[in-house]
Amino acid sequence: MLPVGEEQLPVASAHSNDDVPPAAKLEPSSSPAEPDERSGERVSAQSHGPAISADQELVQLGSRGPEVSVPTELPEAFHEVQHPGSEASMQLAVSAVSDETKTREFEFGGPKALSTDGVATRLGGVLYLINLLIWLNLPHSWDDDGKFAQQMSGWAIVEALARVLLGDLYEQYRHDPIWETLVLLDRREPGRSIAASGMSLEEERPFRLPASWLKRFGAVVWSVFQHDERLLLYDDAAEFLVADVPLRGRTFFEAAHAEVAAYSDAGLEVSWHIGDLVRTPFMASGWAAFTTLTGEWEKNWLSAYMSEEVLWWLGRVMGFVYCVLERALGEHFDDAARLAELVLCRHGQLVVSRTHVDLYMSMEEISIAVRRAGLDRDPGWVPDLARIVYFHFD
Known about the structure:
This protein is of the alpha+beta class and 394 residues long. It has two domains: 18-77 and 86-96 and 103-187 and 333-394, no CATH class; 202-275. The chain is built from eleven helices and twelve strands. It is globular and about 60 Å long.
């Protein structure tokens, strides 16, 4: 059962349950109804409604952070044994609640804690990637046996995608407090890398984009390559890697027919031809800086934050992620840094409680392209993140 929510300020935001915009929509997962919805007049991020009333004054980012409210759960000290009518018990209760209000911190699974006053971040748009996870139903859509979901939490995937999308901009933001916040939300010890242990040896690992992700593209034409003992499938029009699987003793044509047939059986209309690995447009894509000729991940600064298994997966999935974001935003990005600046680099105040993650931003941080894509719509209750997530614009 979800714990009792923290007392929240009335804010301007949106948490519409409307469908994801067609430009970005994949097959969304069904999720439980949002618990603990907050009451109060709100302004939608999808529509510019009237301002809220004076007694629902918004938090001003430039002057002060969100006010600390009295907790709905009494501190442990309140429950110490005292005579119910004693003066000492009353003084203890008042003192404990007062101290809790002044110094209340949200403690995670490790030795660190995050102040509920929040932290200022220049990467508020990292949380927009939560909507991408919802569109793709990550991590559950990746495999049928659920092993991936057991290894990679939603918060870990958000962090991994954000670090990769920043690319060359990362050095400018490496000390942003959002990284520590994501680590704490993922309940990892500080300094511990994102890991997906339990995967098979690299030469035996299969990579296949879920068929549910590809259905929105309609009829597709794929190039098929062989590199050493592996078969690669590549989408000619959208320019991303579809599959990278070991041959396992099969001939090229046996493996190619088997892979294409499996996607066809899942409802995709696929035609394929033998491709030229050297001339594939994939090498001209924005991800060429991250990958080698065969899509292998370069050993670079990212290895300090992610295990080899996670890097292997990201090196193959990012082409599709980049394509989805481009289509949603309605723009082609020759420079990956431009996409990061548009989506991720947003100033705000990030506040985390036991049940909520709230990002407070000024109206100047609104991007029309991001709004049309639906990336700044309120995710609301996200089971995989165990949080209610709201974006607030003032």
